[in-house]
Amino acid sequence: MEDDQFRIETRSIHAGQEPDEETGALMTPIHANSTYEQDGPGDHRGYEYSRTGNPTRTDLEANLASLEMADYGRCFSSGMGAINTVLNLLETGDHVVTGNDVYGGTHRLFTQVYDQYGIEVTFVDMTDLEAIEAAFQDSTELLWLETPTNPLMSIVDIESATAIADAHDAISVIDNTFATPYLQQPLELGADVVSHSLTKYLGGHSDVVGGALLTNDPDLDERFGFYQNAVGATPGPFDCFLVLRGTKTLPVRMDRHCENARTIADWLAEHPAVDAVYYPGLADHPGHEIAARQMDDFGGMLSFELDGTLEQASTVVEETEVFTLAESLGGVESLIEQPAPMTHAAIPREERLEAGLTDSLIRVSVGIEHVDDQLADLEQAIETALE
């Protein structure tokens, strides 16, 4: 399927996949093989060992590459496995520029794993282009961006930020997990690499863990492929099958996620017990205009701060019924959590507070349930917390 011939709603269902030649099976088979017969020593038919390559994984990689308008795709056993593969490119003495409210797991990887190898990292406000430029050094090799960011939903100007990296001969990577390729196409805006946690919206059903890297650069793809095989953080065929099932419904799911999130954000913004709402779809969001320019919609993630105590915020997330208190995001069901003690606990409290990640911040992954039930659930939880 030619990427420029069909729209993303069609490619999400068909790209990278053809009915099985032998049986006509419509769905990609689960190739549960660890090894493959060879016609002679070293003379294989495209596959030799499933850590190196698996037909189900091949179909998923082609599907994801099509969605991101990329020439190449590599899949991994988790989003962190994908991120780690990018960091495998670095050498002792290299420098990284990234956001001061980056995902806690990414922060932990930078500061508690790669620091021991002499990799230096500077955390800056990625909404400030002058701060990004000022953070670059002669040794800077990587610019790592999230947009929208997790959990403050800040918006980074992808085109401008990646241009800075390009001017410094640094690789630019966009974690596109929150937006998905349905809402945002970072490679088209100048990024060198797109990273995904397939666990989230692309899988979409909270039943699989995975990661991916997409690029148009053949040299980068070759290096990713080397580390994919050498390190071995590869997904199994059933995991790949589940993500392929998820991508087929990505557009229709994202439409509902966005619709519900807009309604809830508007409602929270008018609620007397809510002090702040972080959602790029709100007209008063600092990054609204940039988001409207580089995204097709504003996503299904939002955060808010209760006008109350830490304990009251904890009560809100504990008392919801439609929203489940749990980490992760992007599934069809609504989730709610407090980043400080949960997803961002790896970041020292002083750094969190400086970046605006307060103890009472609540993050919401808005699912596709009926929005009236979602609103009623949030209302009763807030009322309970304030009693």
Detailed description of the structure:
With 387 residues, this protein is an alpha/beta fold. 37% of the residues lie in helices and 15% in strands. The chain folds into 2 domains: 8-248, Aspartate Aminotransferase, domain 2 (3-Layer(aba) Sandwich); 250-386, Aspartate Aminotransferase, domain 1. It is built from 14 helices and 12 strands. The strands form 2 sheets. It has a 7-stranded mixed β-sheet with strand order 1-7-6-5-4-2-3, sandwiched between helices. The protein has a 5-stranded mixed β-sheet with strand order 8-9-12-11-10, with helices on one face. The model has no long low-confidence stretch (mean pLDDT 95).
Give a quick set of tags describing it:
Aspartate Aminotransferase, domain 2, 5-stranded mixed β-sheet, 2 domains, 7-stranded mixed β-sheet, alpha/beta, 387 residues, Aspartate Aminotransferase, domain 1
End-to-end gap: 58 Å
Under CATH, the homologous superfamily of the largest domain reads Type I PLP-dependent aspartate aminotransferase-like (Major domain)
Average pLDDT figure: 95
**What's the Cα radius of gyration?**
21 Å
- Count of DSSP E strands? 12
- The helicity comes to 25-40%
CATH topology of the largest domain: Aspartate Aminotransferase, domain 2
Question: How are the elements arranged and paired?
Answer:
Layout: H1 8-14, H2 55-67, E1 72-76, H3 79-87, E2 95-99, H4 104-112, E3 120-124, H5 129-135, E4 140-146, H6 158-167, E5 171-175, H7 180-183, E6 193-197, E7 211-215, H8 218-231, H9 237-248, H10 250-269, E8 274-278, H11 288-294, E9 301-306, H12 310-319, E10 324-325, E11 335-337, H13 349-354, E12 361-365, H14 371-386
Parallel strand pairs: 2-3, 2-4, 4-5, 5-6, 10-11
Antiparallel strand pairs: 1-7, 6-7, 8-9, 9-12, 11-12
Helix pairs in contact: 1-2, 2-9, 12-14
